Task: inverse folding
C-alpha cells in the first residue's frame, strides 16, 4: 500500500497432468507374421510412435525396441518395449493330391503329413468313394490308406477325404477339419 492506494493483480494457474501411456511388457512372438503393438493413453493425450504415426497401434515386423509417446500440449510421457521374434512350432499339414499304390517304395499310401514337432492330441482320417461310401478310416496319424477296399485293389479315380486333428503348438491348442480330393493312380 502506498499513499492509501492498494494494488492488486491475479493470475490463473492451469495444471496439466502428465499423460499416462502404456505399451506393455517386453514380448517374444512367433516369426511367421507381424505383431500388432497397442498403446493406451490417458484421455485427451495424442500418441506419437517412433515412425511418426499417431495411431493407437503399430504393426511390428522386425525385432527391436519400440516406443510410443503420449502428449497433451507441453507434457509428454514415453513407454517402450523390446520385441523379439523366434521360430515357432506351428501346425501345418501337407496332403498329397494323388498317390500310386503299386507296390514300389514311392507314394504307396495316402495320408496327411503333419509337422512332427506339433503335439497331436486327437486325429481321424476318413476316405470315401465317389458315391460317398466309406473306404478307409484311421485314428493313427502314421497309418494311411494303401489303396485297398476290403482287401481288394480300389479302382483308379478320385476319392474324397477329410481328416480332423486336435493339436498343441507354440500358439496354443487348436483343431482343424481338412477336406479334399485325392486321385488314386494305377
Result:
Amino acid at each position: 500500500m502506498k499513499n492509501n492506494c492498494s494494488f492488486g493483480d491475479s493470475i490463473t494457474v492451469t495444471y496439466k497432468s502428465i499423460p499416462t501411456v502404456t505399451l506393455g511388457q517386453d514380448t517374444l512372438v512367433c516369426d511367421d507374421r507381424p505383431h500388432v503393438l497397442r498403446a493406451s493413453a490417458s484421455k485427451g493425450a495424442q500418441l506419437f510412435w517412433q515412425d511418426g504415426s499417431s495411431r493407437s497401434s503399430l504393426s511390428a515386423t522386425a525385432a527391436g525396441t519400440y516406443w510410443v509417446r503420449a502428449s497433451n500440449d507441453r507434457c509428454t510421457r514415453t513407454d517402450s518395449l523390446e520385441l523379439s521374434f523366434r521360430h515357432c512350432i506351428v501346425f501345418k499339414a501337407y496332403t498329397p493330391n494323388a498317390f500310386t499304390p503299386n507296390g514300389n517304395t514311392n507314394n504307396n499310401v495316402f495320408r496327411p503329413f503333419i509337422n512332427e514337432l506339433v503335439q497331436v492330441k486327437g486325429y481321424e482320417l476318413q476316405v470315401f468313394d465317389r458315391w460317398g461310401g466309406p473306404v478307409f478310416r484311421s485314428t493313427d496319424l502314421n497309418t494311411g490308406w494303401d489303396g485297398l477296399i476290403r482287401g481288394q485293389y480300389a479302382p483308379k479315380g478320385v476319392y474324397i477325404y477329410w481328416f480332423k486333428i486336435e493339436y498343441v503348438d507354440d500358439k496354443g491348442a487348436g483343431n482343424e477339419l481338412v477336406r479334399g480330393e485325392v486321385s488314386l493312380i494305377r
